[in-house]
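Lab notebook: predicted structure, single chain.

Context: the supervisor wants predicted structures on file for every construct in the current expression panel, including those that have not yet been purified. This is the next one on the list. No modifications to the sequence; it matches the entry in the shared construct table.
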Amino acid sequence: MHLTEEQSNYLRILGHTLTPAVDVGAGGLTNSLLKEVDKALNDHELVKVRVRFGDRERRSKVFEELAPLADACLVKEAGYVALLYRPANPSTIRLP
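Prediction complete. Output recorded below exactly as produced.
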């Protein structure tokens, strides 16, 4: 799924007040972590994920690998936190 700039900006506004739902530890992208991210996306559609290790490049790589594995869009990445979006069926978030 590809988001337009307008849709991405809208999701950033919605995600601004969210707290991270999933923390990625030093173990990285494990099966149990992917299940946790999948459950969070099923429940909320838009979730923040926090990576608590590594430098900027390593965190960025984790976020870029996580999004396709979770079948989600990487909306935003800032510091230790990324915002992921995967529409539910039916979707509760109406994109512009």
